[in-house]
Design goal:
Blueprint (H helix, E strand, L loop, with lengths): L1 E4 H10 L7 E6 L6 H11 L3 E5 L21 H13 L4 E3 L13 E3 L4 E5 L6 H4 L4 E6 L2 H8 L8 H7 L7 E4 L9 E4 L3
Parallel strand pairs: 2-6, 2-7, 3-6, 7-8
Antiparallel strand pairs: 1-9, 4-5, 8-9
């Protein structure tokens, strides 16, 4: 493992080859690993980075989700309203759901160009992974994640991780234990 500056990751993302005008980045990992912390820190460092949270795609009351693929999430809405348009150099737009009430929020528009970071549990399911130009897996030991999960929904997703092994498809693996200041540095996990 090696400590690296978060600004270096931002520069790496800007330099990464693009297949389209917008660089699409997926950030995934087990619950409580530090995905949101990483994505928020990247967005704070660079105003050209838009953060899209998987929690904004929870199913609404009375709606159903594809429980075998991403329990509780409407991954098709993310694909159809964000990833597919941006992959065609067309602006994306969606209404995020409030995680607790599941009510729709204000319409968000994602302009073409820049960097869009989609972060959260199930962000790199096989149905979405091919849209990303760059994939980041954030992990932390269970002893670190447990206290974080005590404060919120800590539903396990071990079957997704075991079945699809999204960490193996990541371009970068990060230790989200936060032994360092996650706003300025990250710990890279070497394979």
């Amino acid at each position: 493992m090696r400590v690296e500056k978060l600004g270096g990751l931002v520069a790496r993302l800007h330099a990464h080859p693009r297949r389209r005008l917008t660089l699409l980045v997926g950030v995934d990992g087990p619950p409580g690993s530090g995905k949101t912390t990483l994505a928020a820190a990247l967005a704070r460092l660079d105003p050209g980075i838009e953060q899209v949270e998987m929690d904004g795609f929870r199913v609404g009351l009375g709606e159903t989700s594809d429980e075998e693929v991403a329990p509780g999430l409407d991954w098709r809405r993310l694909r159809n309203h964000v990833l597919l348009p941006l992959s065609r150099d067309v602006p994306g737009r969606y209404q995020p759901r409030h995680p607790e009430t599941r009510s729709l929020g204000l319409l968000r528009e994602l302009q073409v160009g820049g960097i869009v970071v989609v972060e959260g549990r199930y962000a790199m399911i096989k149905q979405l992974a091919t849209f990303y130009d760059f994939r980041i897996w954030v992990d932390a030991p269970a002893r670190v994640r447990r206290p974080r999960l005590a404060e919120r929904d800590g539903a396990a997703d071990g079957s997704y991780i075991a079945a699809q092994d999204p960490a193996r498809a990541a371009h970068l693996r990060i230790d989200g234990s936060a032994a360092i200041d996650p706003a300025t540095h990250y710990v890279r996990i070497h394979r």
